[in-house]
């Protein structure tokens, strides 16, 4: 079995350059590749196109890359938690492609499966469909959406083994699994890295064939976007 383990985030991100296209997993701030994002900030790479459901918040997640003006274009579904994102978009500093959430997930999955494009009803008759091929199937109109092309996919899992097999937890499964294998190189950071054979095969969500590099992350903050509480009775 091929050993995909690398010793550090520095080794995991070898080959990252300016003007690349990255996929970054997570849902809100749940399951985001915190270590990879922090190192991208440290590397100072610029002109990036980032494909991610969210754009982080002002001082965390992808918001850190936006603060440093490292992102040229965001391809996202929900971006309502980031004031700096809004400022850059409205000022024309940041190119933005907003995509229906299911379409975003499906374009990732299509890239993972080697499917060049898919038809979806989402967005037909709106700005989303402008300039795109449309087609009727059984009386219903669909929009042709192309699979994403990315240089790196950065994902975060709960557990993984040295062969790259991954287990996700909770809402971290929303986009991370679809991004595995959907780019030229998939880098997985995990909270717990174990030896091959230690994971129950019945519990594995993504097999190692979809992962090229894996490392154990450190110091996960796991922030909450909007903490809502109520007084105790």
UniProtKB/TrEMBL annotation:
Tagged with keyword Transferase: yes
GO molecular function, one term: transferase activity
InterPro entries: 3-oxoacid_CoA-transf_A, CoA_trans_fam_I, CoA_transf_BS, NagB/RpiA_transferase-like
One Pfam assignment: CoA_trans
Gene3D superfamilies: Glutaconate Coenzyme A-transferase
Transferase among keywords: yes
UniProt keywords, alphabetically: Transferase
Family under the similarity heading: Belongs to the 3-oxoacid CoA-transferase subunit A family.
Name of the featured protein: CoA transferase subunit A
Organism for this UniProt entry: Gaetbulibacter aestuarii
Lineage: Bacteria, Pseudomonadati, Bacteroidota, Flavobacteriia, Flavobacteriales
